[in-house]
Amino acid sequence: MGINYSRLLACAMFGIAASTSAMAQDKQAEVIHWWTSAGEAAAVKVFADKFNAAGGKWVDSAIAGGSNARAAGINRIVGGKPPTAMQFNTGKQFDELIANDMLNTVDEVAKEDNWAKIVPTAFQNAVTRDGKIYAIPVNIHGQNWTWSSTAALEKAGVKEPKNWDEFLAAAEKLKAAGIIPLALGGQKWQERLLFNAVLTGVGGAPAYQQVYAKRDVSGEAFAKAAEIYGKLRQYVDPGSPGRNWNDTMAMIITGKAGFQFMGDWAKGELAAANLTPGKEVGCFILGEKPVFVMGGDMIVLAKTKDANQIAAQKLLAKTLMTPDAQVEFNVKKGSLPIRTDIDVSKMDACAQKGVAYMKDPANQQPNVDMLVTSDTLGTLDDVITAYWNTPGQKADEFTKKFAAALKASN
Question: How far does the signal peptide extend, from start to end residue (predicted)?
């Protein structure tokens, strides 16, 4: 879900010069975020309640859609009326904000609370620039999960597939049984998640690293992934284009569809529907050697010299990282706590699978946002969605366009 910030940042320094906060109340924090689905709303309420109990006042500014929320936050900063904090995805999305001195650091709290020992190295690196910490990492999301309707699979006589060949065979059986094989929300970022699930399922960590870290699409793995991705078009229902991810998850929850590829935030929707992850809805990562593509959410702190706002920002950093807040938020959000010192043994079966996948460092792969810029990601999204929505486009043509987009990013 890349976004080009160049125009928004053009007058950033002028906006920051006028950035004295209008909020005078001590430790009042306006937080812009896009946690708007039922499960997400329940999760963010945990943070709000914990912050209020710690002596702050959470002012909720929920804006649907990540790109919309980020753009709104940046516009507020540029306009001289910054929010206290904003949600971003872990990765390179906030690099231009840092370059234009639009964010406060969280170094003081990170040092006091010893983040260096409790936050995984990959996520420490993701929020640190030039030795300074610019964001509060709040969770670890696995992005390439496969979700399955237990009832739908049983009706079609399908077992949990272990690789993509088995998945395609299962899709045919579901189709024959009158069940939509693949639930997909036809939005660019969802189509990208599906493609990356195919890529990692086919070629594992080596193929993923070759493509996104080395910018190389040569070889059998990418070619096979491109072919399989094209074949999946026939298994999606006509209502797919433009559909939100949570509405798509409802198709799994109700048994109308067999499979969906989505991050583990989907578990929040299961909780809202009073379902048990791993029971009514199955969860697994497709591939002979499952790869855990890690992403997450972080909270950035808008640049301000207002003492009350700085106090509120510090309280946010402390509160959101407490063990209780981490466990309760992530249970509802469907993600794993960012703290490695927390006992997750009482979390759901899918979370336990996630922890097991992550035990081998070789399985831990950073999400695309951590490997490419927002501009590059936007270009790749355009290439992927054009291929998905153009049945006549051949896999080799897609490969050439993908390669050109990667080359342009170097």
Answer: 1-24
